[in-house]
Each structure stands twice: as C-alpha cells, then as structure tokens.
C-alpha cells in the first residue's frame, strides 16, 4: 500500500523521539545511499520508503504519516545537517587550531553519516593556502545538494499530483458506471411498466 494515496503532503511537527527512530529506519535501508537513478534503483528506493513509512507508523508515535510526508521530513533533516557541517567546516578552516566552533549533536552526525556520499569528503584538512579554494568548493557542494533537494521536492509534488489525477479518473469511471446502471434500471422499469400495462389490457 502506498500511503501517499491517502494523506496530504503537509507534515505536522515531529518529536525528537520520532526523528531518532526515523533516522534509524532510513539508515537501515542501504539502497537509499545508492546514487543510481535508473528505473530499477528508483523502484527499489520507492519500496524502501514504503517500508520505512509502514514501520514508522506501526510504532504509533503520533498521527499516521504518508511516505511523501516522511520523505519531506527527511529532506528537512538533511538540510539541517548539511548546514551545520558546512558552517563548522568553514569556521574550522578559519581557525589556526582547527577546532570546530560548535559541538555537533548526535542526530546531526547520524544524518550526515547517511548522506555523506552526496557531498564527498568533508574531512579533508586544508592548509592556509588552500582555505579560500576549499571554502569555495564546499559552498558549491552545498548549493548542488540544495538543488538536488529542490529537484526531489518537485518530483514528489508531481508524484502527488499524479496520484490525485488517478483518484479523479477512478471516481469519474465509477460515476460513468453508476449512470449506466441507473439507465439500465430505468429501461428495466419501463419494460416492466409496458408488460404490466399489456397484461391489464388483456384482462380487460
């Protein structure tokens, strides 16, 4: 079952406990780290999101969420992790001792461990001569990642619209079938009336 067919795309607030469990479930689905975009990989990824959604809703933390909603929550978690990592990297390259300016929380690290392949190696140390170019490269990577997130968001909206269009077509088909049944019932009723009238006439 695809939960997208039954729930709106807008998500309600998610609790820290829900975020922790969601990150755990996503980390277990190795196919989501696969960069391939062919038909087979895309199909396997869709199945993975459906499994994640089913397991997440089975815990009954709060309102049931669709796979589309789950993926939007994940997008936001990724964006947050990327911003924290990017900010720390840029600040670290400006400091002589290389110490990160802020402590990264466990959730950020877990999310980033899942998506690290999307941005390449954040851990390379740049010397003072390479800092400026390193910062520029990092900025480009972040922008590219954000564009990919926007692209995914658009694809999800298109998918939701397709589901809505499919529901409309199903309802239209049901309406046509109902009208045919109603017309057939009217014909049967008319025929019965004619037969009844003929019967009364013969009696007279």
UniProtKB/TrEMBL annotation:
Q: Which GO terms describe its molecular function?
A: DNA binding
- Whether Protease counts among this entry's keywords is no
Superkingdom classification of source? Eukaryota
One Pfam annotation, family name? Myb_DNA-bind_5
Give a short account of what the protein does: Involved in transvection phenomena (= synapsis-dependent gene expression), where the synaptic pairing of chromosomes carrying genes with which zeste interacts influences the expression of these genes. Zeste binds to DNA and stimulates transcription from a nearby promoter.
Oligomer and partners: Self-associates forming complexes of several hundred monomers.
Query: Under what name is this protein listed?
Result: Regulatory protein zeste
Q: Which organism is it from?
A: Homarus americanus (American lobster)
Its ancestry begins with: Eukaryota, Metazoa, Ecdysozoa, Arthropoda, Crustacea
User: What gene name is listed for this protein?
Assistant: Msantd-L28
